[in-house]
Amino acid sequence: METITISQAPQHVGETVKIGVWLTDKRSSGKIAFLQLRDGSGFFQGIIRKNDVDEATFEAAKHDLHPETSFVVTGEIAEDKRSKFGYEIHINDLEIVGQSDEYPIGNKEHGIDFLLDHRHLWLRSRKPWALMRIRSQVKLSTMEFFDKHGFTQFDAPILTSSAPEGTTELFNVDYFDEDAYLSQSGQLYGEAGAMALGRIYTMGPTFRAEKSKTRRHMTEFWMIEPEMAWCHEEESEEIQEQYVAYLIQDLIDKCPTELEMVGRSVESLKPFTELPYPRITYKEAIEMLQKGGMDVKYGDDFGAPEETFLADQFNKPVFIKNYPRSIKAFYMPTDPEDAQQVICADLLAPEGYGEIIGGSERSYDYEYITSKLEENGLSKEDYGWYDDLRKYGSVPHSGFGMGLERFLSWVTLQDHIRENIPFPRMLNRLRP
Ligand code: 4AD
Ligand code: MG
């Protein structure tokens, strides 16, 4: 007899098979018990009729099985039109593998702190299951997209001596009596990669010692950071929008059930696959905000209320271009139209989900970069290698970083970004 997974049930209708499962819930009436089952690949229902199994098995199914008990069922696969998954199993044997204690997560409402304390178990529930599947698909689609566009996957180190995005949010590590930091961004290393391989992207965890408690910030989050030699900002923005549209189309095609389980309709995602996305300048954004009665002036950075207001003016993601130099990173080149500004863009998600991508052109001028490093107090010892990239055949190049969980929280409509990573790390959370 074949052992299969729940996801393979459609290919085995009418056959008797074995599946290793966990119980999520059960109900019984008289001579029949309904077991809600999951096996990691999916969820479906198992039906036990008193007449189909021996007395002890039926009694065990009715009384002894706690949620999360693991067992192997043997039975016949049938179609089940009423279930989301479309199939069920008519059980004729059941072999318990691991008994479960009284399971702490039930059908009642639990507070978020309780759920996060039990994250190692909460991951088994339906919504986290769907969210993790969507996350996995987005990483796979990322690799496919960049592969199709001629990018090489490139790994930046996590232990570093540099701070690309400012020195205030660093996690210090004691590195054999030297100071090291957990990487804030793979970008500077990605630039070295682009000079070697043309077009690269990194995908890995990045760290910010964010003291702020917001629903968009974690201390450990994943970033996808493409870096492209011989590329100006305009072309980089085109790649960014194609990438976002590609990810969404792939989710529509490959994860419709998961999207439905998290409450995101496929219909509502479709408009975001249509390009181009609108582009406005930082100055235009300031005007819009002021006209809308918001208290901002030129030079201010945008917080959540400003980002949400701006995003609400459009029904698609919107690029905000060319911010003032004072609020952006040292490596960004001067905007030829206004020397107070730099050539860059942030992509804001619609529906109030904030900045999902930050990107820019990178100055490829040796004098400019060395002077900016100096102004920012960044040492030759730590950044001399970065200068070298401008010394040996420097070329125009651009890149961007997409926050994986920011993107995911938008497409899955999660109020808080912590739902979109297996084990979130935040100001007050290091466990489990
Ligand atoms: O805008 P950021 O700081 O840009 C960079 O790090 C550049 N070096 C990227 C590059 O050009 N290669 O961060 C990029 C993105 C943000 O747009 C946001 O989506 C996400 O990373 N992000 C965070 N996500 C979760 N928690 C945090 N604390 C985040 N900080 C940034
Ligand atoms: Mg940013």
From TrEMBL:
Carries keyword Chaperone?
Answer: no
One Gene Ontology BP term is: asparaginyl-tRNA aminoacylation
**Name of this chain's protein:** Asparagine--tRNA ligase
Domain Aminoacyl-transfer RNA synthetases class-II family profile per the UniProt entry, residue ranges: 132-432
Keywords attached to this entry: Aminoacyl-tRNA synthetase, ATP-binding, Cytoplasm, Ligase, Nucleotide-binding, Protein biosynthesis
Q: Which family does it belong to?
A: Belongs to the class-II aminoacyl-tRNA synthetase family.
Q: Where in the cell does this protein reside?
A: Cytoplasm
An example of a Pfam family matching this protein is tRNA-synt_2
User: Superkingdom of this entry's organism?
Assistant: Bacteria
Catalysed reactions, semicolon-separated: tRNA(Asn) + L-asparagine + ATP = L-asparaginyl-tRNA(Asn) + AMP + diphosphate + H(+)
Q: Which gene encodes it?
A: asnS
Q: Does the keyword Hydrolase apply?
A: no
GO CC, one annotated term? cytoplasm
Q: Which GO terms describe its molecular function?
A: asparagine-tRNA ligase activity; ATP binding; catalytic activity, acting on a protein; nucleic acid binding; transferase activity
Q: How does it assemble?
A: Homodimer.
Q: What is its EC number?
A: 6.1.1.22
